[in-house]
Design a protein that fits this description.
Layout lengths: L5 H9 L11 H7 L1 E6 L2 E2 L3 E2 L7 H13 L2 E6 L13 E6 L9 E11 L1 E4 L17 E5 L3 H8 L3 E5 L2 H10 L4 E4 L1 H10 L6 E3 L9 E9 L3 H16 L2 H7 L9
Parallel strand pairs: 1-4, 8-9, 8-10
Antiparallel strand pairs: 2-3, 5-12, 6-12, 7-10, 7-11
Helix pairs in contact: 3-7, 3-8
């Protein structure tokens, strides 16, 4: 199944946190013995309903639940489910931005650096930043994305796509010279297709508008639950759990 870019998936999942649903406090989560996570069942490397390859969001969610002493409950987000029916506690990969109005969502400490990476086909040695691209190169971008607008302003020859999977497939076929893509998506593709010859660069390191940090989104509950999740994240970072989980999918762990 074709999937929308992770940013679109995140927006869809974020909509599931409705103000009308009752938020759970830490005491309620502990009494219930479970904390729930919103996730997409067909969005590897982020999440999947495959038992042998659940995605890094599911693995991190399980580790967080274990650190809290409860079980993880999965609430799958798919188009046919109305957002108002979803009553989950957590959403991973929530972008940390104090300027965004999050409604019923609070965020934990940031646990990963991310942004818009630059995926490249073979023969692109020396290219590490968007500014390194030679004039006339065909660069795939997500339609109406920030990267699309920024690169168009710079006169880059961009080709719009609705799906990251299609964009990377065309890059692998040689129809594109580069792609502005999520680092997790291209890293997982390279991990799963080592003979493709594709590579990627964390080009967002030099592009503040294309860089961000991600955290655990929590429906407005009490500070005790937010603090407990923060403590759990700190432990998972210190003991290497997060780095190990990301490595399972070929994704770099970049601590904020």
């Amino acid at each position: 199944m074709k999937r929308l870019a992770c940013a679109v998936c995140a927006v869809t999942a974020a909509a599931a946190f409705t103000p009308t649903a009752s938020a759970r406090t830490l005491a309620e989560v502990q009494a219930r013995g479970a904390i729930s996570l919103c996730a997409n069942p067909d969005a590897l490397p982020y999440a999947s309903n495959q038992s042998d390859k659940p995605g890094f969001q599911i693995e991190i969610g399980r580790a967080l639940a274990a650190a809290l002493g409860v079980k993880l409950q999965l609430d799958w987000i798919v188009p046919r489910i109305r957002a108002g029916l979803v009553d989950c506690d957590m959403l991973l990969d929530t972008i940390v931005d104090p300027d965004l109005a999050r409604g019923p969502i609070k965020v934990s400490h940031a646990y990963q650096r991310s942004g818009v990476a630059l995926a490249l086909r073979p023969g692109s040695d020396g290219v590490q930043q968007f500014s390194d691209l030679a004039p006339g190169k065909r660069v795939g971008v997500m339609v109406n994305s920030v990267a699309s607008k920024l690169l168009n302003q710079r006169g880059v020859y961009t080709v719009p796509y609705a799906f990251e999977s299609d964009m990377i497939a065309d890059l692998a076929k040689g129809s594109l010279d580069a792609c502005a893509v999520s680092p997790a998506t291209i890293a997982y593709y390279v991990h799963a297709h080592p003979s493709s010859g594709l590579r990627y660069a964390h080009a967002y390191d030099g592009e503040p508008e294309l860089a961000w940090k991600v955290a655990v989104g929590l429906r407005r509950s009490d500070d005790a639950l937010v603090n407990a999740v923060n403590d759990a994240l700190d432990r998972l970072i210190r003991d290497g759990t997060l780095a190990h989980v990301y490595a399972n999918y070929g994704v770099d762990y970049r601590q904020p």
